[in-house]
Amino acid sequence: MRSLFRPALLCLILGTGAVGAATPPIPPEAVLEHIKFLASDELQGRANGSEGLERAAEYIAAQFKAAGLRPGGDNGTWFQPFGLTAGLSIDAGNSLVIRAGSESIRLTLGDTYYPLAATPASDSQAPVDLKGVPVVFAGYGLSAPDARYDDYAGLDVKGKAVLILSHEPQETDRNSRLNGARPMRETTLYAKALAARSRGARALLVVSDPSHRTDQANYRAFAADSDPEDHQIPVLRVSRDAVAPLVDLWGLDELAAAIDRDLTPRSRALTGSSVDYTERLTLKRRTVRNVVGILDGASAPSRGQAIVLGGHYDHVGLGGRFSAAPERTGEIHNGADDNASGVASLIEIARAAAADRTRFPRSLVFIAFAGEERGLLGSVHYTIDPALPLTDTVAMINLDMVGRANGRVEVGGLNESPALAADVEAAAKVAGISVSRGGPGAGRSDDSSFIDRHIPAVHFFTGFHDDYHRPGDDWNRIDAAGTARVATLALELAARIAAQQTSPQPNGR
Q: In 3-state terms, what secondary structure has residue 369?
């Protein structure tokens, strides 16, 4: 699961108890065997662009074939390749200078600033050299019209560097219209970068907001693991301590407090302020692959419609900026729960569905996504180039971190797709598992890519734990029986959706 921050989770019990079992049952021992392989030291944490990830892809494809699926990738294969950035090299000459009036602060890469997103030079793109770019303050960098909040309303950012605060206003207020203690999709780095870039900004600077006592960014980790995201403009995390004189000069803490108080944006041009930024970084490009298998529907009239069942199979390799314990960079982060558990479930769901195909008039598309940890890249790529048309895709079921159930599972996405709630409840009774509304938060996993395309989607999730994105996420901590129950829940939900005469509709359709 993509690392942003740990949200508070809301719980609303939907249903409990067992009424029968799936046909055929999903065996916990089979699920665990897949997890053991995918989370083995041999695969070195399945980092994007690594040999371990490629071995995992071949394994998943072989299992999809054995289950009875047909290939759903490019050119009749099991694979859907796409490119991504997997690290970079640091060249000489990187610098960042921020000026305000007579005050000038020079920052150092890997000490007082680092790129969250970079746009290194390539054959088609010149090096980044920004000189004297004016600075504007855009609050928390949020554009959330559904919540009646927009830091960019009336603000001209074209050709400018946008300075924003991290996190969101009122983030601990459960009564806030900005979703309170649960983060909104608009607070993700991707969404904030897009909001700035789409309005013509040339760079985005992120400073820790004053509601957090310490700056949570690890600036020195950049040298050990140079691996920023790619959002088409530079996105720079800037040390709050280093720019404290400017924070005081601009009165940012007072502006933040006022925004928190009444949710009225205080965006403005920072007159007399400018940025010089030189970026000398070289991208390392890699090709990774989604693994796609299809179970054709049993009914000719319904076969052209699809339900996607997905889960990502990439993890964070040896740690670095993706690790929750960056000081342990270099150790294998095996990712048994995140997300060997979801992929193992997909394999066994495919096997069970193929063995009882008459329950599925609509087709099922099984996808193991790559690139999730780097910004949901695999699922975004699939929605651009789907195996079956998105216009005929009626729902998406995502399994990400389902390995520590202990009798319950959280369901995300029902607020956006309320039509699925009754089917989730009915499926939970068959699976014999307690379900609650919650999930990891908006924008955290691949269901978001489908919700963004107005496809009803739910996310099954058994909760964060102390091993999340750490070396301790190993197979011997998996609740195999509970994982099998979550897989059964997903199977039963898919069967209900597949057999319905009408398609579930998301909010807004």
A: strand
Q: Tell me the CATH number at 389.
A: 3.40.630.10
Global pTM reads 0.69
Q: Does 144 lie in the same domain as 76?
A: no
Note whether residue 75 is domain-resident: yes
- Cβ atoms 461, 401 nearer than 8 A: yes
DSSP for 201-234? Answer: -SEEEEE--TTSSS----TTHHHHS---B--SS-
Identify the domain containing residue 174 by its residue range: 92-279
Q: Are residues 98 and 189 in the same domain?
A: yes
- Shared domain for 390 and 429, answered yes or no, is yes
Pairing assessment for the beta strands 235-238 and 203-207 based on DSSP bridges: parallel
3-state secondary structure 259-303: HHHHCCCCCEEEEEEEEEEEECEEEEEEEEEEEEEEECCCCCCCC
- How does pLDDT run across 449-480, given as a tens digit for each residue? 999 999 999 999 999 999 999 999 999 999 99
Give the Cα separation of 380 and 445 in Å (integer): 11
Taking alpha carbons only, the member of 303, 501, 299, 305 closest to residue 393 is 305
Is the same domain home to 182 and 217?
yes
pLDDT per residue as tens digits for the range 90-125: 999 999 999 999 999 999 999 999 998 888 776 667
